Amino acid sequence: MRDLLDITWAPLITLTAIAESDPGRIAEGVRRARAALERTGFSAEFRPRARGGIAIALDTLHQLTGETAALDEAIAELTRALTELPDGAPGGAGLTWDLAALRAKRAALRTDAPGADDDLRAAVDLARASLRLSADDVLLQQGVHRGLRIARAAADRGRKAAFWALRAGRTEDAIGCLEAGRSLVLGAAAVSAGVADRLAALGENDLAERWREAAAGSAGERGDDRSLLELTADAGADAPADPRHRTPLELLAAPGSGAPALPGDLRRRSLEVLRGQGGDDVQPVLATVGDLRAGLRATGADALLYLVPGVADPDGAVLVVTADGPVTALPLPGLAPDGRAPVAAYLAGGADRQRLEAADDGTGNPRERERAVRRWQRALDDLCGWAGEVLGPVLGHLGLWDRALAEAGLTGAARVPDAVRLVIVPCGDLGVVPWQAAVLEPPSGYGVPRAVRACEIAVLTHAAAGREFLRAAARRRMAPADRPALVFHGLDDLAWAEEEIDTLAAVHYREAVVHRPDENPATPETVLGLLGGRAAAPASLVHLACHGLAGPDPTESVLHLAPPDGEPSGPGGELTLSALLETPAEGDAFRAAGPLVVCGGCETDLTTRDHDEALTLTSVLVHRLAADAIGSRWQVDDMRSEILMLVLHDALGRGLAPPDALRAAQRWMLTPPDRRPPVRALKGISAAWRLTEDLRDRPDTWAGFVHQGNPAPAPARRQEGEDA
User: Fold this and answer.
1) Helix (H) or strand (E) segment spanning residue 80
2) Between 52 and 257, where is the model more confident?
3) pTM for this entry
4) Could you tell me the CA-to-CA distances from 375 to 13, 15, 368 in Å, in that order?
5) Distance, CA of 115 to chain centre
6) What CA–CA distance (Å, rounded) separates 138 from 160?
7) Average pLDDT of 662-679?
8) Which of 64, 96, 489, 518 is the most exposed place for a label (fewest CB within 10 A)?
9) How many angstroms separate the CA atoms of 677 and 668, rounded?
10) Where does the record place the CHAT domain (predicted)?
11) DSSP symbol at 44
12) Count of other CB atoms within 10 angstroms of residue 28
C-alpha cells in the first residue's frame, strides 16, 4: 500500500502545484514515485502509466522553474514508458502523443540549438504513430459515441502535428497527419456494433464471450480520450471531467483506457482478429500525396486545399496540392487564432438564432427573433469578407486570377478558358464557412470594377478529407434523368418545397418516382432503397425536400421522413447518419457508381458538434453511396431555396455536372433580376414577385448550399450557358 501511495504522489502533487506553484513539493513527489517504481509488484500495464505521471510532474516543474533539465527528464521518462508498454496495451496512443508534444515543445524552446531539428522530426513521427494507435482504439470502441470521441481527439491532434511537420519542412507529412486524424472520424461513426458482436461475426465466439464477460464486470465507460498531458493542461477548466475532482489512481487510469478494463492478452488477441477484418471504414487506407495528384489529374481540378486553422500563433495555413509540383504551405494571418474573430462571431450569432428558434412555442418575442436573425446576417456578411481574405491569396499563389476572371467574362477575353476548379478540405470550425460566398477583390491590374463572390469565378467542391475526394472521384456518375426519385415530406411549413417537387416532376422528371406524405410516403427504408444500398436498381437522382437536423453525433443527425406503416410520427421516421453509414453499397465502400443526392432541407451539411465537415449528412452520403451530394449549411428559407433548386435542375438538364450546376444556380441568384436568363421551370411559378428580388447582397438566401463529391465537369457535352 505504501508503494501504491508513493507511485501516485507525483500526479497528485502536480495537480496541487498547478494551483499552489510549489516546485519543491513536485520534486519530492517525483522522488517518491521513482523510488516506488524501483521496487516490484506493479503490473506491466500500470508501470508505463506511472512513468507518464512522473513525466507530467517533471514538465510542470519545468514550467514553474524554467529548468530545461526537468523537461529532458520528462522526455526520458516517457521514452522509457513506451519501451515498457506491452504490445496492444491501452494507453499507448496517449503516452505516444505526450512524448510527441514534449519533444515539439523542446524543439520550440531550442530553435537554434543543436538537436532542435531532431526533436521536431521525432515529434512528427511520434504523432503519426499515436494516430495509428488511435485507430486501434477506434477499432476496439464499445459503441459509436466512444469511438467518435476517440476519433475527434485524434483529429485535433492531427491538426497540431501538421503544424509541427510544417515547421520541420515536411509538408507532405503535414497532410499525412491531417488525413490520419480526419479519416478516423468517419471510420468511428461507421461502426455501431460492439466489439463482441464483431468478433462473433468473424467466428471468434470464445473471444467474443470473454469480451462480454470483461465488459459486464466493468464500471462502464470510465476512460478519458485525452492524454495525461492534455488532462493536466485542462486542469483549470471548469468542466465535469476536471482532473482536480479525481483521485490520483483515477487520473493515472483514465487516459485512453476506455471501457471495459480488459486483460492485456484479450485486447491484443482482439486486435489481431479485427485488424484487416473491419473493412476500409474502420481501418482506412490513407491517401498519399501521389494519390491526390492522380485524383486531381483525373478530375481536371486545379488544386486541393486543406484550410487549417492555427492552434497557436502564428499558426494557420492553407496546404496546397496540385497535379504537378511540390506541396506548398501558404501561411495566412486570417487563419491564426487571433485572425478568426469573424468565425467566432458567426458561430455565436448562429447559436443565438438557433436558441430562439428552438424555443419558439408561440409565446416568444418575434422582435427578439428578428433581431437575432439580423445579427446573424451581419455576421454572415463579415464572415464572407473574411473568407475572401483567405481564398484571394490562394488564387494569387496558384496564378489562377487571370483564368478565373476570363472564364467569368470579367476581362473581355476573346477565348473563354476552362473554369477554375478547387477542392476544399476545411478543418476544424472552418467547416462552417460558406466559402462559395467569399468576397474577393480582384487584383487592380485586371480592371474589374467590383468585388466578386468565389462562386462567380471558380467551381468549388468540398471534401471531408483527401481520401473522400478520391472516393467520390473514382465513382461513375449516373445520368440524373435515368431513374429520378423525388421525395417530399413535411407539413404546411414546407409549402414551397412541396411546390418544388411538383414542378420538378412536371417539367424535368416526368418519369420520376414521387413520394408524398399522402401518396407513396417515403420512410427511412424507402430512402435507403432509393440510394441503392438495398436495391438492385438504385435511383440515379434522389431529391429530398424534407426537414433535416444537425446533431452532435450520427445518432442525432437525422432526416425527418414518414414513419413505417402503422407507427405514429416520431423516431420511426428518422433516417440517421448511423443508418446511412451501416447501409451496404454493393458490398464495397468504394462503390463503382453513385447517384446525385440533393438535400433541400435544413442543416444537411452541418454538425452541431464541432462544425467540421468530417461528419455531415452530405459527407456521409459521399462516403458511402453517392457520387455527388448537395446540402445546406444553415436553416434555409424554402420560399427562396425553391427557386435555387429549380434553377439547379435546369442546369443539370442542360448537361452540367453537379458542381457546375450548383455554381450556375448560385450565379443566377447573384445576377440582377433584369439580366437573368430564362429558366423553364420558373414559368408560371406562384408568387412571381420572388423573381424580381435582387439577392446579390443576401448570401443567406443562396450561399448555404455546397457540393461534396466528384469535382469533375461533365465529360461529353459542351457546357454552354454556364455563365448563367
Assistant:
1) helix 68-84
2) 52
3) 0.89
4) 47, 42, 11
5) 35
6) 20
7) 96
8) 518
9) 8
10) 415-710
11) T
12) 14
> What angle, 0 to 180 degrees and rounded to 10, lies between the N-to-C axes of helices 171-189 and 617-624?
90
Q: Which of 304, 296, 336 is nearest to 320 (CA)?
A: 304
Which triple of cell numbers denotes residue 7? 507511485
Phi, psi of 513 (to 5 degrees): -80, 125
What is the CA angle 4-10-16, rounded to 5? 120
C-alpha 558/C-alpha 537 separation (Å) is 25
The grid coordinates of residue 327 equal 506541396
Which DSSP symbol is given to 255? Answer: B
User: Distance (Å, rounded) from C-alpha 203 to C-alpha 620?
Assistant: 29
- Which amino acid would we find at residue 184? L
Q: What pLDDT was estimated at residue 6?
A: 55
Instruction: Answer left, alpha or beta for residue 67, where phi above 0 means left and psi between -120 and 50 means alpha.
Output: beta
> What's the sign of the alpha-carbon dihedral 441, 447, 448, 454?
negative
Helices (H) and strands (E) in the chain, counts: 27, 18
Query: Pick from 291, 330, 275: which is nearest to 308 by CA?
Result: 330
Distance CA 537, CA 583 (A): 15
Residue 425 CB neighbours (<10 A): 27
Question: How far, in Å, CA of 171 to CA of 710, rounded?
Answer: 25
User: Which set of grid coordinates corresponds to residue 681?
Assistant: 421551370
CA 421 to chain centre: 21
Q: Where are the beta strands (DSSP E) in 587-692?
A: 593-594, 596-599, 628-632
477, containing H or E segment: strand 476-477
Secondary structure of residue 563 in the 3-state scheme: coil
Out of 282-291, 300-309, 484-493, 538-547, give the one with best mean pLDDT.
300-309
